[in-house]
Design a protein that fits this description.
By secondary structure, the protein is an alpha/beta fold. The protein folds into 2 domains: 187 residues, Acetylglutamate kinase-like (Carbamate kinase); 151 residues, VC0802-like. It contains 14 helices and 18 strands. The strands form 4 sheets. It has an 8-stranded mixed β-sheet, with helices on both faces. Strands 14-15-13-16-18-17 form a 6-stranded antiparallel β-sheet. A hairpin with a 7-residue loop joins strand 14 and strand 15. The longest helix has 16 residues. It is globular, with a radius of gyration of 23 Å. The model has no long low-confidence stretch (mean pLDDT 93). The structure holds aspartic acid and magnesium ion.
């Protein structure tokens, strides 16, 4: 979030006017039905004993999917401005119902959309980033109510166009509001107990972590652990907001706390194993080995907001030519191939290949840098099980292996066993 100098001063004085606030966010499954909305209202009412509450909610259940489907029934290529306006209605419904429910419980509640509140974003439809939040409006709103119910996922541009923040964007709304209001914590209520060492539905031995660092969660979330949106975690790290992932249906549980993890490395080098099956691998073969080539490829993809990962360009036996390989989300594959095919002719490359039969299996841990035996154990675990590794990449906090999709769950389970993650 950026402020102009005068905006900054106004925001600072508004911040001083704000009372201490608890920030709570409830996802789609938590507000799926009226019974659940009532349950959420009870949690909010309970919290009001400790001061004012700002609640961010997602659309009820699968509403966003349903709205997307409607748009695609209308046209194959929906106009992005209208699409955002449509998608934002899901959250508009849930805020009104929650505020209504709270009022039946004698709570002084008020619902606001992102445009009413002033959550300003860039003018990029369907994946806009937040630029500014009008803290003045927040302070004003809390002067007239105890529970402010804010629509997640929505934004508004300086021109007044409605935007959305990308799927799962309500987490980002909640963290941004926690940062804007100076809250120390942001509680993300969901339908699981917190963050585990791996997906407990697939690996029953997976263990609930009481604490994990921002960096590890970003990696785990990016690598397929869908508890919290990685962008929200990045933002929390940037503003020092402590996240707590908690179960709506067990509100008394503490859940998992996500923070800077300063002292964490001392007792734990690995935090989990994550799989991501919604991935595809692409390669552009025999591109000229010249300065600027990689930039052209990556820029062309970035222009379409296609996120790429595991980018590799390695030693190649044919002098003067390179192969560049990377992974993209499966949904971005058709567009990626189209862009690469265009570049291929422009740059005189030989071919574009795609492999959809892949999944990423990653070992994540803040304390694994400088411990080569971890990689050795990881690769031999897969090797001994005759699981072929198609690609490998590593960073300070993770080692990712691409394997064929059908073997991903087995690979994750073997890795979880090999590193005894149930004991971390
Ligand atoms: N309703 C939006 C979605 O389903 C945003 C969210 O749930 O966070 O993606
Ligand atoms: Mg949702």
């Amino acid at each position: 979030m950026s402020h102009s100098t005068s905006g900054l001063a106004a925001a600072e004085s508004a911040k001083r006017r704000l009372p201490p606030i608890s920030v709570l966010k409830f996802g789609g499954t938590s507000v799926k039905s009226m019974a659940r909305i009532q349950h959420v209202a009870e949690i909010v009412k309970e919290r009001l004993k400790h001061g004012k509450v700002l609640v961010v909610v997602s659309a009820m259940g699968d509403t966003t999917d349903y709205l997307l489907k409607l748009a695609h029934q209308c046209t194959k290529n929906p106009d992005q401005r209208e699409l955002d306006s449509l998608l934002s209605t899901g959250e508009h419904i849930s805020i009104t119902l929650l505020a209504m429910m709270l009022k039946t419980m004698e709570v002084s509640a008020r619902s606001v959309t992102a445009y009413q509140l002033g959550i300003f974003t860039e003018s990029v439809h369907t994946k806009a980033r937040i630029l500014d939040i009008k803290t003045e409006n927040l302070a004003d709103a809390f002067e007239t109510c105890d529970a402010l119910v804010v629509a997640g996922f929505q934004g508004v541009t300086a021109n007044g166009d409605i935007t959305t923040l990308g799927r799962g964007g309500s987490d980002t709304t909640a963290v941004a509001l926690a940062a804007a209001s100076g809250a120390k914590y942001c509680d993300i209520y969901t339908d699981v107990d917190g963050i585990y060492t791996s997906d407990p539905n697939k690996i029953p031995k997976a263990r609930l972590l009481d604490r994990i660092s921002y960096g590890e969660v970003v990696e785990m979330a990016r690598l397929g652990a869908q508890v919290i949106h990685p962008r929200a975690v990045e933002l929390a790290r940037q503003y020092g907001v402590i996240l707590r992932v908690r179960n709506t249906f067990k509100p008394e549980h503490e859940g998992t706390s996500i923070d800077g993890g300063e002292d964490m490395e001392i007792y734990r080098s690995i935090s989990g194993v994550a799989t991501d099956k919604d991935q595809a691998c692409v390669a552009i073969m025999d591109v000229p080995d010249q300065p600027g080539i990689a930039a052209r490829i990556v820029e062309a993809l970035a222009k379409k907001a296609i996120v790429i990962d595991m980018i590799m360009q390695a030693f190649h036996p044919t002098a003067g030519l390179n192969n560049i390989t990377f992974t993209v989300a499966s949904t971005d594959l058709p567009q990626t191939i189209k862009i690469l095919e265009e570049l291929k002719s422009e740059m005189g490359a030989k071919a574009v290949h795609a492999d959809e039969d892949i999944a990423k299996v990653s070992l994540v841990g803040a304390g694994m840098a400088g411990q080569p035996e971890i990689a050795a154990r990881l690769f031999s675990t897969l090797g001994n099980a005759k699981i072929n590794i198609k690609m490998i990449s590593s960073s300070e906090m993770k080692i990712t292996c691409v394997v064929s999709r059908g073997q991903a769950d087995k690979a994750a389970k073997l890795i979880h066993d090999a590193f005894e993650l149930e004991k971390v």
